[in-house]
Structures are given as structure tokens and as C-alpha cells.
């Protein structure tokens, strides 16, 4: 009941008269069980915010952002979300947030006010009443997008030699926590820890295979450097072993080569 009241209060901050009228006259939607009233309210919030005339580009942006918020291992910052398919710049990210500001907190990163809204997004109620946005629930789609986000950033100059520009001859005088905060972006920190978790959830694609190959042969030591600076070097072996579980490696002609490289690194 508290969540319902809080959501209504936030919902009414924008165009209060019009939105109060919507709440008073909306049809009661059924089928959400004991969460019926709350899910019905969430459905009203989404419909009132985006209407029924969403363009294809807007649908992609909304589904990409919400899907990433659900399936990412940790919350992603704006810079990472803007790299997702369909999210073309800050204006589109702001479009999503402006529409859902009553259920999403902007802060340094986007996150849902309450777990119940994420549950709503994954419910059959959401799929039934908001079919145009049903791809929010498509985990395979979002795992693929998150894999692309991680590998694209790893292949790019975002991951490079001597990430923190440390002078090895004077390393004892370097404030590592401050250096990490300024030199290693939240995206690089995220991809370094979770790229393999997303990769194993995807199907074989030549473009992904080439990216993995490039990372293993050209960026492996740079990635290990980042993990070391993040004080997570002990997780490197487990992450590489996790990558070996990617089904695509089993059907790749270069499987033996990749396998040997990864196992040697482990």
C-alpha cells in the first residue's frame, strides 16, 4: 500500500490534473492476483507516459534501457546505457527517464524505486497489457546486447595498456583507489567483471567470435591489469573458465586454439 501511494504521488507531479483524471477514470485491469492494484497502477503509469503511439525507435530505446536495468549484473551508468542499440544519445535516455520518473530514480545511475516494478515488467500482466514493449522480457535479446556492449568496449581503446598511467618506478607512492576512480570508468569496471557471464548466454555469431579472438590475443593482459587494479585478480581464472562454457566455441574451427589460449591463461 505504501508503494502504491508513493507511486501515485510521484506520478501526479507531472500534469497533476490530467493524470489525476486518468487515475480516476482508468479501467481496472484484471489478472495480476494479489498485486492487481499495484500492477494496474504501473500499467497506467507506462501507458500515460508513452501512450499507444510509440515509434519503432522509441520502442527499441525503452526496451533496451529497461531490459539492461533488469538483466545487467550491476546497475549501469548513463554512458553505458547510451551505447545500447536504440539508445541514440542522451536525449533518448532522458526520454525514457522522463516517461518513467515516477517509478525510476535517476541519481548517478538509473534504478527502479522498488523491486515490485521489475516484477511487473517480467509478469504476464505486463506482456498482456503492453504487448508493444514485450521485448523487455526477452532475456536472449538483452544478454546479446550486453555482450555486444562489453566486447565492443573491450575491443575499443577504452581498454588499453597501463590504464591508470602508473609510473612503475614510483608505484608505492600512488594512491590506487583515487587513481582507479579517475581512470577506470564504470563501464570498464563492469565489462571486466561480467563480460563472460553475458557471453555464455548468447548464440554463435561470427562478429562475437572475432571480438573474443581479438580480446584474447590483443587485450588479455590489459584486462588482467584492470582486474588487478580493481583488486579482483583472484577472479580472472574463474572468468576465463566461464568464457570456455560459451557453446559457440565448441563449433568454431579455431576452438582448439582458443581453448589452449584460455586454459594457459587460467
Total helical segments: 14
Q: Which range does the strand content fall in?
A: under 5%
Q: What number of domains? A: 2
How much helix, percentage-wise, in residues? 55-70%
- Low-pLDDT regions: 27-33
**What is the straight-line distance between the termini?**
51 Å
Secondary structure: number of strands: 2
Class based on secondary structure composition and strand pairing? mainly alpha
- Kindly report the spatial arrangement of strands forming the biggest sheet: 1-2
Average pLDDT over all residues:
83
Radius of gyration: 22 Å
Structural shape: elongated
Order of helix and strand elements from N to C terminus: HHHHHHEEHHHHHHHH
Major sheet characteristics:
2 strands, antiparallel
Notes on the protein architecture:
This protein is an all-alpha fold. It folds into two domains: 136 residues, no CATH class; 125 residues. The chain contains 14 helices and two strands. The chain has a two-stranded antiparallel sheet. Helix 9 packs across helix 11, helix 9 packs across helix 12 and helix 11 crosses helix 12. It starts with a helix and ends with a helix. About 3% of the residues have low confidence.
Amino acid at each position: 500500500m505504501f508503494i502504491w501511494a508513493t507511486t501515485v504521488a510521484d506520478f501526479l507531479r507531472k500534469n497533476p490534473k490530467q493524470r489525476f483524471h486518468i487515475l480516476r477514470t482508468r479501467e481496472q485491469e484484471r489478472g495480476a492476483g494479489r498485486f492487481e492494484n499495484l500492477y494496474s497502477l504501473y500499467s497506467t503509469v507506462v501507458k500515460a507516459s508513452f501512450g499507444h503511439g510509440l515509434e519503432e525507435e522509441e520502442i527499441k530505446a525503452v526496451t533496451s534501457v529497461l531490459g539492461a536495468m533488469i538483466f545487467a549484473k550491476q546497475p549501469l551508468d548513463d554512458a553505458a546505457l547510451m551505447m545500447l542499440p536504440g539508445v541514440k544519445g542522451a536525449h533518448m535516455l532522458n526520454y525514457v527517464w522522463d516517461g518513467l520518473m515516477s517509478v525510476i530514480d535517476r541519481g548517478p545511475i538509473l534504478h527502479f524505486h522498488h523491486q515490485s516494478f521489475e516484477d511487473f515488467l517480467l509478469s504476464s500482466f505486463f506482456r498482456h497489457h503492453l504487448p508493444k514493449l514485450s521485448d523487455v522480457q526477452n532475456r536472449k535479446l538483452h544478454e546479446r546486447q550486453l555482450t555486444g556492449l562489453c566486447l565492443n568496449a573491450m575491443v575499443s581503446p577504452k581498454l588499453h595498456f597501463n590504464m591508470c598511467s602508473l609510473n612503475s618506478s614510483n608505484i608505492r607512492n600512488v594512491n590506487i583507489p583515487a587513481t582507479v576512480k579517475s581512470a577506470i570508468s564504470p563501464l570498464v569496471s563492469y565489462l571486466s567483471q561480467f563480460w563472460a557471464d553475458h557471453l555464455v548466454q548468447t548464440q554463435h555469431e561470427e562478429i562475437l567470435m572475432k571480438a573474443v579472438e581479438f580480446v584474447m590475443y590483443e587485450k588479455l593482459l590489459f584486462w588482467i591489469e584492470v582486474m588487478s587494479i580493481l583488486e579482483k585478480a583472484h577472479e580472472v581464472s574463474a572468468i576465463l573458465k566461464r568464457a570456455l562454457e560459451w557453446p559457440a566455441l565448441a563449433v568454431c574451427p579455431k576452438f582448439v586454439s582458443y581453448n589452449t589460449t584460455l586454459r594457459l591463461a587460467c
